[in-house]
Design brief:
Order of helices and strands: EHHEHEHEHHEEH
Largest sheet: 6 strands, parallel
Number of strands: 6
Structural class: alpha/beta
Number of helices: 7
Helix content: 40-55%
Shape: globular
Distance between the termini: 36 Å
Length: 246
């Protein structure tokens, strides 16, 4: 078998995924939506391992549960939470052995989040906080607009307490006030299932990201599909407002 010679040479420190299409994947196969969500969760480890250890990407952000997802049926939300809890419990030791830091971005003070979910989240954060080589950033109860409100409140609080002067507020201050101040901007966003929108995901962090929208449903998004997306990214010309490199 010929060895894959593809190497990612373009700078890619932070990749984000909107893992969409679990329900449609299941429907296409005559399965329940729950089966689709389970298949989607089972895909996560393979993809993030490829990002970290094959392509040496420092940070992977995964949009797991949005602030808008509370509009789904209660039974589906409960099942999603149970899958998330099981994923963290089953993979924590593996993350620790690979020295992967787990970060969780979102409103964790929301009273609707069950305590057992919060317990496992805080356990994972605490037990991996010392690692710095790779970060798995889980977007849970996350909304981009809510994150910006969170940042604004932090800034106002610091101004009111005298820690920060109004005239010192700049982009760096805003960055430091976000959920994860040390993760940085997204270089590439991949959304599966054919939808072409960002759905309130990382509004500030996506300012200069490259977007790839693939028709593949998330449960079918495998190593080969990831490589195809990275090859597309590799051929993009990232100008950041400057002129095209000839």
């Amino acid at each position: 078998m010929k060895k894959d010679s593809f190497q990612l040479t373009k700078k890619l420190d932070h990749i984000a995924f909107i893992m969409d299409g679990n329900g449609r994947w299941a429907k296409k196969r005559g399965l329940s939506r729950s089966s689709g969500h389970k298949a989607g969760v089972n895909r996560i480890s393979e993809i993030i391992d490829q990002c970290f250890f094959t392509y040496n990407i420092k940070t992977v952000s995964l949009y797991c549960f949005s602030t808008e997802n509370w509009n789904r049926p209660e039974k589906e939300i409960s099942y999603l939470f149970s899958l998330l809890k099981k994923f963290f419990e089953n993979n924590l030791e593996d993350f620790k052995s690979k020295q992967v830091r787990i970060a969780v971005s979102g409103d964790l003070l929301d009273s609707r989040i069950p305590q057992d979910i919060l317990d496992v989240i805080y356990k994972c954060i605490e037990e991996t906080k010392s690692y710095s080589l790779h970060t798995f950033n889980v977007l849970f109860n996350y909304g981009g607009r809510r994150e910006l409100v969170f940042a604004c409140k932090n800034i106002v609080k610091n101004v009111q307490s005298g820690v920060l002067d109004l005239n010192d507020i700049d982009e760096a201050v805003l960055q430091d006030s976000l959920y994860q101040k040390d993760i940085g901007d997204v270089d590439l966003l991949i959304r599966t299932s054919g939808e072409e929108r960002i759905s309130n995901c990382l509004l500030y962090e996506l300012a200069y990201a490259e977007f790839i929208f693939t028709q593949t449903y998330w449960p079918d998004f495998n190593k080969k599909k990831l490589k195809e997306c990275l090859e597309i990214y590799q051929n993009r010309n990232r100008r950041f407002g400057g002129l095209k490199n000839e």
